[in-house]
Design goal:
The chain has a nine-stranded antiparallel beta sheet with strand order 5-7-6-1-2-3-4-8-9. It is α+β, with helices and mostly antiparallel strands. The protein is elongated and about 55 Å long. The chain has eight helices and twelve strands.
């Protein structure tokens, strides 16, 4: 699923190609391209409402992007598993997975494609500059409204683990599984670390590391697993997370993550086989660890311990 860096790559590409542009016509080829999915009546309302409007800006929060319209509303887009936007000449043949076609005022089409139909477009009012359906989602680390100190305090107050909390879009949006794993490795922090074990400084460092990881991904166009994710030019994004080696003396201060945990919480952590094995290796195991590495074609990040 496209994460924040992939969505930002798409947003930036669209902004350079379609802002500003007038909407001359709209053709809902397949109602599964709309959210919520409706029938021909809903498709007709979407087409009539959008026709004649003008795109004035394209913004993003987390994994969502939206086209700001000149009437103060927005066309919200979520890419789902395989959603794509293509800007093409009007006469170009339509791809078989085309769901919505938006005719622009210069003989070009903005086309929304979605093979798996988990994504979609919807028209929504703006609430404080954010579409209503995503107003409950927290700001992401790249927004001006993101207060890293306040988010760090809220993170530390959670009665949960670090990885689970970073994936919670109501705390901080846009940090997906791939980027959380890389963030935790760079920060030398076990994913099952209780949030209450973090100091304010460590919590801030963790959030800043997440931003750093995603910033690197944005500069490389995001991470692509296959042809399902491409930018507006049809090119795949790619991020290869380098293998690094960390000396044992610096590898991971695993004992710190348990220093203030209660006996009950310690037992809860150790009940997880994965956590127990990882902590055992970090606390009593080999001299160094090899980091996670992500390769195109693989949907998982692998942590490998070596002697």
């Amino acid at each position: 699923m496209p994460e924040l860096p992939e969505v930002e790559t798409v947003r930036a590409g669209l902004e350079s190609l379609v802002i500003p542009s007038a909407v001359e016509r709209v053709d809902v080829v397949d109602v599964r391209g709309l959210r919520p999915t409706g029938g021909s009546e809903e498709a007709g309302v979407f087409e009539a409402t959008l026709t004649g409007r003008q795109f004035t800006a394209i913004n993003r929060r987390g994994k969502y992007l939206w086209f700001v319209l000149d009437d103060g509303t927005a066309m919200l887009a979520h890419l789902g598993m395989s959603g794509q936007f293509r800007v093409v000449d009007r006469e170009a043949p339509r791809h078989r997975h085309t769901r919505v076609v938006i005719g622009l005022g210069d003989d070009r089409d903005l086309r929304f494609l979605d093979q798996r139909t988990f994504g979609g477009l919807t028209l929504a009012p703006l609430i404080d500059g954010v579409p209503g359906p995503v107003a409950h989602i927290a700001p992401d680390p790249f927004e001006d409204s993101f207060d890293v100190d306040e988010v760090a305090r809220r993170l530390r107050a959670r009665r949960s683990t670090v990885k689970r909390s970073l994936l919670d879009q109501t705390l901080v949006s846009g940090v997906g599984n791939i980027y959380v794993d890389e963030t935790l490795w760079r920060a030398r922090r076990h994913p099952e670390t209780p949030c209450s074990c973090l100091s304010q400084r460590k919590a801030v460092e963790l959030l800043e590391t997440a931003r750093e990881v995603m910033s690197e991904a944005i500069t490389q166009g995001g991470t692509s697993f296959d042809a399902l994710y491409v930018n507006v030019n049809g090119e795949s994004g790619y991020l290869d997370i380098d293998v690094e080696r960390v000396e044992g003396s610096r590898a991971h201060e695993g004992r710190d993550c348990l220093c203030r945990a209660s006996a009950m919480r310690r037992q809860a952590i150790l009940r997880s086989d994965l956590a127990r094995r990882a902590l055992d290796k970090q606390l009593n195991g080999p001299a160094h660890l090899v980091a996670h590495r992500h390769k195109v074609g693989s949907r998982s990040l692998r942590g490998v311990a070596c002697a």
